[in-house]
Amino acid sequence: MDFDPPDAVRPLLDRIERFIADVVMPAETAVMTNGFAESDATLRELRAQCKAAGMWGPQIPHELGGLGLGLVEHGLVSERLGRSPLGHYVFGAQAPDAGNIEVLHKYGTAAQKARWLEPLARGEIRSCFSMTEPENPGSNPTLLSCRAARSGDEYIVDGHKWFTSSADGAAFAIVMAVTNPDASPHSRASMIIVPTDAPGYELTRNIKIMGDAGSGWASHAEIWYRNVHVPVDNRLGPEGAGFLIAQERLGPGRIHHCMRWIGVCERVFDTMCRHITHRKIDDEKTLATRQIAQAWIAECRADIEAARLMVLHTAWTIEKKGFSVARDNVSLIKFFVANIMQQVIDRAVQLHGALGITSDTVLGFYYVHERGARIYDGPDEVHKMAVAKRILARYA
User: Which of 4, 148, 166, 301 has a Cα-to-Cα distance from 280 of 20 to 30 A?
Assistant: First the structure.
């Protein structure tokens, strides 16, 4: 494996770094203070500048107007974008739209692509992915209560979902619902497109995350589907293939998440180093002269480097050998990188003292909104248990 960025993508990475630093970061304070929904005009302008610079949609296929980068290349891009809370959104690479684009591109019909995929890839609309339910463990997607009963050429969707990220302002949801209750656990659910203006679709609330309900793309909604009628033609892929499609979506998605988290780590690390080298603790010395601060800096640097290599190796393995070969690696990076990010953020907050728990730096935002990284897409404990079982089975 060559650890140098490919020659074809290296100039792009440099351009992205400059764009994030010069264009995106200066807009952070206003957007994060006013809210995403309330900052729509600002975000549209940032996206227009990104498109004009020829950097829109790094993960989006060429035929849909994107850059069509491979998994390793996009992983490197995702790290750069992760240096700003706005980065992925400005570049059209944000979850859940990125995953929904992948699903629609692979499994969508011509009509679905024309109505939903093409405007989604252009950034003209947003989407959400509705799977997690408050009554069932999100760590086991085979346990779903939401039903989509077949009635002629329609499905009637009934169910209760929450943590449907970015539903606020979305044009449609991709809903995981049970269509074959008597089938085997992994063949019961299907993915169905539900327009958010359909009668019976009810966004109850944006769930407060440690006190912050968010708005627009930066939110997580509770949703009721009450007798929602949609055409059978809105199903993605074969009936009962929802779990299979979800697994295909999650593999590359975890690479994107983990590389974004490394970008978060780099932003936090820079913030921490700048602060302690200037923060006076007496008339002559700065916080950087203290051994505990020096030890934390060294440990954070080592942890970030290790995490990056693990994720890039996993992405390379998926590209060269397939997801099945990289299955253990995917589980390992999910909990390892999330924990590294959490530790780096926590140390940065501690070294900032009282300033670290304010909203005067980006640290408070990350501390609140990135804690969920150890829960969503499978909690740490489930990934550890699953990968340990597979490893130990080889010794049995």
Answer: 301
